[in-house]
Amino acid sequence: MAMNKKALHGVIALAGVSALALTACTGPSGGGSSSAPAAAGPIAYGTTDKVTSLDPAGSYDNGSFMVMNQIYSFLLNSKPGGAEPEPDLAESSSFTAPTEYTVKLKPNLKWANGHTLDSKDVKFSFDRQVAIADPAGPSSLLTNIESVTAPDANTVVFKLKLANDQTFAQILSSPAAPIVDDEVFPAGAVLPDEDIIKAKAFHGQYTIDSYKKNELVSFKAFPDYQGVLGKPANDEATIKYYASPTNLKLDIQQGNIDVAFRSLSATDVDDLKKDSKVKVVTGPGGEIRYITFNFDTMPFGTKAADADPAKATAVRQAIAHLVDREAIADQVYKGTYLPLYSNVPTVSSGQTSPSRMLTARTASPAWTRPRRCLPMPGSPRRWHSTCSTTRTTTADPRVTNTRWSRNNSRSPGSLPSTCSPPSGSRTARQAAPTSTPCSSSAGSPTSAMLTTT
Hints:
Layout: E1 4-5, E2 9-10, E3 17-18, E4 21-22, E5 43-47, H1 62-71, E6 76-77, E7 86-87, E8 90-97, E9 100-105, E10 109-110, E11 116-117, H2 119-132, E12 145-152, E13 155-160, H3 168-171, H4 193-198, E14 206-212, E15 216-221, E16 236-241, H5 245-254, E17 259-260, H6 266-272, E18 278-283, H7 309-322, H8 325-332, E19 338-339, H9 354-362, E20 387-388, E21 401-406, E22 412-416, E23 426-427, E24 447-452
Parallel strand pairs: 5-16, 5-17
Antiparallel strand pairs: 1-4, 2-3, 6-7, 8-9, 9-13, 10-11, 12-13, 14-15, 15-16, 18-24, 19-20, 21-22, 23-24
């Protein structure tokens, strides 16, 4: 099975950041072995997430991004199960100066409607994100871009405000970075879903065949996709939307869908693990749970009558020490989360275990107690406390052929493309509350997937 994961953004306190990850293949209508080169039949995916908009400038949520991951490409993307951005539409990419990032595109790219896909589309996509700056969109991820130029049809140059931005490759694979057709999308407004579909403005592993918003979406494989995700394992796929997790659970048990993800409760996941017809598959996750203090109104906060920065810091650190991450992860979330000690996931490039860093700096045994919530080094705003990262769950937000959904830094979603269902079985998986951007005493964050047999 293929697995895709992505990390998003981090925060303070109890648990941490959110990111998506999913992959699951199989289906009553599928068949063949996981190593079969030919694409399998349709795969049905179920979710309680909702779509806000199919226009990348108009949404920044898991439900929308899940669909976008199927129908759009990025300059860079991550392979299922990987974290490092690799060329997708790009042929190559690199820093050509401390504040200059240059991307060379693959030649002869086409949209599903026959329009040429080149550097003009790339420049247009980033420029319109910034220009529209929709409150519901992800334009805030692009604040380090000063300008985008297209010196020729296959070259794009990003001029950055701050030098040596080591997160920029991740930004190019984030929810702010799907490339759109400049002959279809308006420069200054969000395009309605119906207009996107009518114009066939697609260039991803799939195109949309039929669309009933937040009810049912049907996909067909796009034969001209040349990106890093590869050929889809399934020629067709559907996403069915549920108003209730109870109905989602019932349909995966009855075999009405192949994959279930987002969102089933920890209790539902635990229950499904006992069902002989359902298989729970675990993998990297992308959600974290956390507690945040209001720095103004917390005890000794900046606007309190007895404001005292040192005492406010002590309060946050005391709570960080008191919260038992392991107990919450095991007893409340039933193992679908792992303890979190950082808002940077272990699966992220360059991540270093906070407990190891703190031990090296302070040589204090208190920092290494696995059951304690530890304050992060540096600013009091960086202290942490609690659990995150799923270890097992029932339905991943991104069935991925390449990726049914993405996370954080990018975020959420792809359809199964690198995996085909085992003969005679159907798969469902869910990346239950998973954390990508956090580290845990058990190693790295995980999420789970269910498979029915």
